[in-house]
Write a structure and sequence with these properties.
The complex is a heterodimer. Chain A contains 12 helices and no strands. Chain A is mostly helical. Chain B is mostly helical. The chains are: A mainly alpha, B mainly alpha.
C-alpha cells in the first residue's frame, strides 16, 4: 500500500471541505438571531428552532414523513422476503425477468414514476390519499430491501438448512429456526435503507402528495423555493442531526461502508 | 386444483406462490402506470376541453421541434455530461487517496464522503444556495480578498456545482469497491521494478479501476440527467432541466400529455444509454478476462 503524498492530502482536504461546506453553513446559519440568512457573528439564538416547532405545516409534514417511511419500509420488506426466497431458492422460467422487474425502480427515474403514478391515480379517481402514497413509496424502496435480503440469502451457508432437514425438521421449522435468523441482518439493514430512502424521497413524492399528505422534503422544497428565512436552515439542521444519528447507528450495527457500498 | 398436480410440480408452485404477490404489486404499480403514461403521451390536449383520448404524434413533434424544449434537452444532456466528467476527475483520485489511507482515517473519511447520502438532497441544495447566493458566503469571501462579486446562483455553474456535490459519493463508492479488491503488492512490485509513480498509476491501478469508473459514471449521468431539486433550487425559474420542465407541464401548465411526452423521452434516453453502457462494461470485463 502506498502512502499519500502532500499533494494527495491537499486534494483530499479540498474534497472534504467541498463535501461538508453546505451542511456546515446550514448548521451555523440556523443559530442566527437575525431575520435573514446570516452567520451568527453577533451571538447565538435558538429562536428559529422554536419557530420550527410552532410551525404547524412543518410539524404535520414531519409526522407524515415518519409514518410514511415506517409503513412503506415495512410493507416493502413483507413483499421482498418471499420474492427473495423465490429468486434465490428456485430455478424457474422468468426468474431473471422478475428480478429485473423488482429492481426496476432503481433504473426508472423517479420523475417518470411520479408522473406515472399521478396519471394512474387520476384515472382511478383516487389521488391524494395517504394509503396510495404509502404504496408508491413501498414500490420505490423495494429494490433496497430486496438487494440486501438477496445478499444475505446468497451468502448464507446452505449446509445449516440441509443439516436441519436431514435431522428431520419440517420445512417451516427450517425456515423459522435457520433461514429466518440468518436473513435478519439483511432484513433489518434493508428496512433501514428503505426507511431513509422513503424519508428523503422528493422527486416522485412531489407529484403524488396532496395538501394533507405533504411530506417533509416536499414541504421544504416548496418553502425553499418561495421564501428564504433562517427557519429553513433550522429545519435543515434538525434533518442533518437526525441523519448523523442514523449514520452512527447504522455504522455501529452494520458498518456504513458495507451497507451503502454493498459487498461486491 | 387437484392434489396430484401440486405433487407433480411443487418446484413450480412454490416460487409462484412466493413471488406472486410482489409480481402483482409491481405489475399494478410499475408496468400499468408506465403504460398509461405512454398512452397519455399520444393523447392531445386542449386548454378548454382538457385531455382528449385520441391518438396523435403532435406532442412528440412539438417537443422535438420547439426551440424551448430542444434547448432544455440540450442543457440537460450538457450539464449531466459535464457533471459526470468532473465527478470522475474528483471522485477517482479521491477514492484512490482513501484506499491508501491508514486504518482509522480510512473509514472516518469514507463516512465523511458517503455519509451525505443520508442527508436529504433538499437540505444540501439549500446549503449551496446560501453559499452561492448574491450575498452568499462565496461572494463575501471574494469581497474580503478585494474581488468583485460574481453571479453564481441561478447559473449553469451553480447547477453543476450542486450536481457534483450530490453525485460524488456515487462515483467514489464503485471505484473504492474495485480498488479494495486490487492486490496492493502489484503496484508495489511495479514501483520496485523501477516504474515511476505515474506509470504505476497509469499501467496498474487505472486499468483495474476502469470498471468501477464506468459503472460510477453511468449512475452519475443517469441521476444527473433526471435530477429535480438541484435545477429547481439552483437554476431558478429561467434555467430548466428535463425534470423541472416535466414538473412545470404537469403542475403549472396542466398540459399532462406534453409532460408525459417529455417524461417518456427521458425514460427511453435513460434506458438506451444504460443498455449501451452495459454492453461497453461487458466487453471491457471480457477483455480483462480474455
Amino acid at each position: 500500500m502506498q502512502r499519500n503524498g502532500p499533494i494527495a492530502l491537499v486534494f483530499h482536504s479540498l474534497v472534504v471541505v467541498f463535501m461538508l461546506a453546505p451542511m456546515v453553513v446550514v448548521c451555523l446559519v440556523a443559530f442566527t438571531p437575525e431575520n435573514t440568512l446570516t452567520m451568527p457573528w453577533n451571538g447565538l439564538s435558538l429562536r428559529w428552532f422554536e419557530a420550527v416547532f410552532h410551525h404547524a405545516d412543518f410539524m404535520s409534514s414531519f409526522g407524515n414523513s415518519v409514518r410514511l417511511a415506517l409503513l412503506s419500509a415495512t410493507i416493502s420488506t413483507v413483499f421482498a422476503v418471499p420474492a427473495a426466497l423465490a429468486i434465490t431458492r428456485y430455478e424457474f422460467r422468468g426468474r431473471e425477468a422478475l428480478n429485473a422487474l423488482f429492481l426496476s425502480p432503481l433504473i426508472i427515474p423517479h420523475l417518470v414514476l411520479g408522473v406515472a403514478f399521478l396519471r394512474l391515480f387520476s384515472l382511478m379517481g383516487m389521488g391524494g390519499s395517504f394509503g396510495w402514497l404509502v404504496a408508491t413509496h413501498a414500490i420505490v424502496v423495494t429494490p433496497y430491501t430486496l438487494r440486501l435480503i438477496l445478499a444475505s440469502l446468497t451468502s448464507m451457508d446452505r449446509n445449516a438448512e440441509n443439516a436441519a432437514r436431514t435431522l428431520g425438521a419440517a420445512e417451516w421449522t427450517v425456515f423459522r429456526r435457520i433461514t429466518m435468523p440468518l436473513m435478519l441482518p439483511g432484513i433489518s439493514g434493508g428496512w433501514l435503507l428503505a426507511f431513509i430512502n422513503s424519508f428523503d424521497e422528493l422527486t416522485m413524492s412531489i407529484f403524488v402528495t396532496s395538501p394533507s399528505t405533504v411530506t417533509l422534503p416536499v414541504r421544504m422544497y416548496m418553502y425553499a423555493s418561495e421564501s428564504i428565512d433562517p427557519m429553513m436552515a433550522a429545519v435543515s439542521t434538525l434533518m442533518i442531526a437526525l441523519a448523523t444519528v442514523t449514520m452512527i447507528i447504522l455504522d455501529r450495527l452494520f458498518g456504513l461502508d458495507r451497507l451503502l457500498v454493498g459487498k461486491g | 386444483m387437484s392434489a396430484a398436480t401440486s405433487a407433480i410440480k411443487p418446484r413450480l408452485l412454490a416460487p409462484l406462490a412466493l413471488s406472486g404477490p410482489t409480481t402483482l404489486f409491481f405489475i399494478g404499480l410499475v408496468l400499468l402506470p408506465l403504460l398509461l403514461t405512454v398512452i397519455l403521451s399520444f393523447n392531445s390536449y386542449d386548454y378548454t376541453a382538457g385531455i382528449k383520448s385520441d391518438f396523435t404524434f403532435a406532442n412528440y413533434l412539438t417537443v422535438l421541434q420547439d426551440e424551448y424544449y430542444l434547448s432544455t434537452f440540450w442543457r440537460t444532456l450538457r450539464l449531466a455530461l459535464l457533471t459526470t466528467v468532473i465527478t470522475v476527475l474528483i471522485g477517482v483520485p479521491e477514492a484512490y487517496v482513501l484506499s491508501n489511507m491508514r486504518k482509522p482515517w480510512r473509514s472516518i473519511f469514507l463516512l465523511v464522503i458517503i455519509g451525505p447520502l443520508l442527508v436529504s438532497v433538499v437540505v444540501r441544495t439549500f446549503g449551496w444556495s446560501m453559499l452561492l447566493g448574491k450575498n452568499g458566503f462565496v461572494n463575501s469571501a471574494l469581497a474580503i480578498v478585494g474581488l468583485d462579486p460574481v453571479q453564481l446562483l441561478y447559473t449553469e455553474t451553480a447547477i453543476v456545482i450542486g450536481l457534483v456535490h450530490i453525485m460524488l459519493p456515487f462515483m467514489v463508492i464503485p471505484v473504492w469497491t474495485v480498488l479494495q479488491k486490487l492486490d496492493p503488492t502489484v503496484e508495489a512490485a511495479a514501483l520496485t521494478l523501477g516504474a515511476s509513480r505515474f506509470t504505476a498509476l497509469r499501467r496498474i491501478v487505472f486499468p483495474q479501476a476502469a470498471l468501477g469508473i464506468l459503472s460510477g459514471s453511468l449512475i452519475v449521468f443517469a441521476l444527473s440527467a433526471s435530477s429535480f431539486a438541484i435545477p429547481g433550487l439552483l437554476g431558478g425559474r429561467r434555467l430548466k432541466m428535463a425534470a423541472t420542465l416535466v414538473y412545470d407541464e404537469f403542475l403549472i401548465e396542466l398540459n399532462w400529455p406534453l409532460g408525459a411526452t417529455i417524461a417518456i423521452i427521458v425514460l427511453v434516453a435513460n434506458l438506451v444509454i444504460m443498455l449501451a453502457y452495459n454492453r461497453l462494461i461487458e466487453r471491457q470485463a471480457k477483455r480483462k478476462l480474455g
